[in-house]
Amino acid sequence: MRNEKKRDIHQCTCDACRQHPRSSVVTQEHRALNRVLAGLDEKNRRRFVGILALQWGRGSVIRLHEISGLSRTTIRRGRDEIQHVGPRSEQGRLRKAGGGRKAVEKNSRSF
């Protein structure tokens, strides 16, 4: 089992959600989208928002930035990943191999 931290659900900052925080159909759609995004890992979140950016067309990156809270570069990166399928060598990994801290045994000097 992985030690997973529950992600908070982002509050949309678009005009419709600020004016009608509970009753608007648009607000309910934005909240549903953010609930789905909260359950995804970083790679799938990026790709899911990238698919939406492709579907919504012009101006979608800024709109999705307001709705989801993801950075515009992350949304563009997800859109590009969906358009250009890369090599499958890192399949099953979220991040590239080799990152993080070195093992304690390698860091400590033997006396």
Keywords:
mainly alpha; elongated; 111 residues; 53% helix
The largest pleated sheet is described as: none
The Cα radius of gyration reads 18 Å
Q: Mean of residue pLDDT? A: 79
Order of helices and strands: HHHHHH
What are the low-pLDDT stretches, counting only 5+ consecutive residues below 50? none
Query: How many separate helices?
Result: 6
First-to-last CA distance: 37 Å
**Share of helix, binned:** 40-55%
Question: Mind explaining what this structure looks like?
Answer:
There is one protein chain. This protein has 111 residues and is mainly alpha-helical. It has a domain at 15-84. It contains 6 helices and no strands. The chain has helices spanning 15-19, 25-38, 42-56, 60-68, 72-83, 104-107. It starts with 14 loop residues before the first helix and ends with a helix. The model has no long low-confidence stretch (mean pLDDT 79).
Topology:
Blueprint: H1 15-19, H2 25-38, H3 42-56, H4 60-68, H5 72-83, H6 104-107
Short summary of the structure?
The protein is mostly helical and 111 residues long.
